[in-house]
Amino acid sequence: MEESDDRLDGNAAAGLLQSIFPFEMTTARTICAGCGERSQIAELAVYSNSMGTIIRCSQCDTALMRVVQAEGYFWLDLRGTVSLQLAES
Predict the structure, then answer these.
(1) Which of 13, 55, 60, 88 is the most exposed place for a label (fewest CB within 10 A)?
(2) Is residue 50 helix, strand or coil?
(3) pTM to 2 decimals?
């Protein structure tokens, strides 16, 4: 993706992720499978359009999460994320 694309920060995905997970996801920490960067979701790059949402590493642009919502279902692909760290409360 080029820098001129509609890039948002991870907070832009807060509503979508809240629909899937019952806790605050913008403070969840990820480890990128591409470069090993550790980041909070709020710090990541978000690209969203009618086909879905892609959350990318802000360092190497690896797609950490892909989310599609259609026909009453969510499809969630986390293969770019080595781990997802969530606070207990």
Answers:
(1) 88
(2) coil
(3) 0.84
Q: How far is CA 23 from the centre of its chain?
A: 15
Residue 48 Cα distances to 7, 10, 29, 55, 87, angstroms = 8, 11, 20, 9, 26
Q: Answer positive or negative: Cα dihedral of 15, 43, 83, 27.
A: negative
* Domain encompassing residue 23: 8-82
Q: Does residue 12 sit in helix, strand or coil?
A: helix
- In-domain check, residue 1: no
Per-residue pLDDT tens for 14-41?
A: 889 999 988 889 999 999 999 999 999 9
Residue 23: strand, helix, or coil: coil
What's residue 80's pLDDT? Answer: 97
34 φψ region: left (φ > 0), alpha (ψ -120 to 50), beta (else): alpha
